[in-house]
From TrEMBL:
SUPFAM superfamilies: OmpA-like. The chain crosses the membrane at residues 44-65. Residues 1-25 are annotated as: Disordered. It comes from the Bacteria. One of its GO terms (cellular component) is cell outer membrane. It is found in: Cell outer membrane. Its main location: membrane. This is OmpA/MotB. Signal peptide: none annotated.
Amino acid sequence: MPTRWKTKNVISSLASGSPTPTPATTRFNQRRFEMSDQSDDSDVGLKVVAVIVTAVVAAVVGYAVSLAGKPAAAPVAEVVAVEIEVPEPVGEALARLYFEIGQAQLAAEAADAIARVQAALGAAPDAIVLLSGFHDPSGDAAQNAELAKARALAVRDALVAAGVAEGRIHLRKPEVTAADGPPEEARRVEIRVQ
């Protein structure tokens, strides 16, 4: 390679009218040429890196643009409303639990009713528990229905805590009592084992 440079250097010096290079200038120019070759190698490396980086950026931008034009993906699983048929009450209630006005906490007497339900379920392994919450027609109907539901859920939670399988417990839609009945009847949950 230095020979090639020397030839170029001699030709360029002759063309420019400058004298033929001396050994010192030849060594200097040779080092400069070798450095120039190294510089060319690193320039090629930088160009390759630049091309790769540009390609990656273009691919990412292209992918982002393609996603922007598409609608959102459909959900993986759809929620399907399933109506479970709740049986009609049959016969008399096994127990009636009464609640304080505006409250959904079970009274202390509830433990006896829970024990009777457990005994009845033990005697009838295929039976279910049907809970019916009641409220009166006065006041806000939606609020009353929510309170009746909360009371029925409190009874369900007590039954589950006592060991009754949750799958055996069914809740009916909250029911309205007759306006002329005793007021505590509007604050009850009936428990049937059927």
